């Protein structure tokens, strides 16, 4: 099933029947108001910062998102800037060797694999898409190293389209709070598409990324400082 068909698939009766009762009673406006107030003085996540710096250029966003996988924000930001200064489009990146790309994005996680994938992606964009990064999920998901998180971020940040970007923070917090019950980030995305009002699709990632980095951490979260209206603390054994 294609990415677009998955996103639009109807809710199965079994899923609705087995869903926690609390899901139907979520009041999303207080949730987002609390999160936006909390993050007011915090800088944006790295990809959003790159998007702003490079005027929402699709190539810059695609490159920075690929670099960001399994990489801390500060490393992502420095690596993306270093590479994009040398390779601001796919033609310029193809002029670099894999070794040169590796040096520019080091110490990003899996930097050698990312260098290989970036070269392949640049060639695809140039040969198959006339140098323009595609603006639909199905095509982006066909690129090496591009998953749903990356594809959604590109269409959201670069093309101003609706999407839900689910990374480890969105997946963890959505389950921990009891908003939903899912085993994978993709499943979390599909459930959020069903229960989350569309106006919150795009902002859910940046607010929860920051919340997960600062308060709702994987191990021993700062529950005493939580600003969310309610949280079930699903799976939390120790907290501060």
| Distance separating the two termini | 43 Å
Percent of residues in helices: 55-70%
Strand-residue fraction?
under 5%
Write down the secondary-structure element order: HHHHHHHHHHHHHH
Q: How many individual helices?
A: 14
The biggest beta sheet, please? none
Label the CATH architecture of the largest domain.
Orthogonal Bundle
- What is the β-strand count? 0
Write down the overall mean pLDDT. 90
Under CATH, the homologous superfamily of the largest domain reads Hypothetical protein, domain 2
- Class computed from helices, strands and strand pairing: mainly alpha
Task: Give Rg in angstroms.
Answer: 19 Å
Q: Given the C-alpha coordinates, what overall shape results?
A: globular
Q: Which spans of ≥5 residues are poorly predicted at pLDDT below 50?
A: 1-23
Number of domains: 2
CATH class of the largest domain: Mainly Alpha
Q: Describe it for me?
A:
There is one protein chain. The longest helix has 18 residues, at 111-128. By secondary structure, the chain is mainly α. It is built from 14 helices and no strands.
Chart the SSEs and their pairings.
Elements: H1 3-7, H2 13-18, H3 28-38, H4 46-53, H5 58-68, H6 73-86, H7 90-94, H8 98-105, H9 111-128, H10 137-140, H11 148-157, H12 168-177, H13 185-195, H14 204-214
Helix pairs in contact: 4-5, 4-6, 5-6, 5-11, 8-9, 12-14
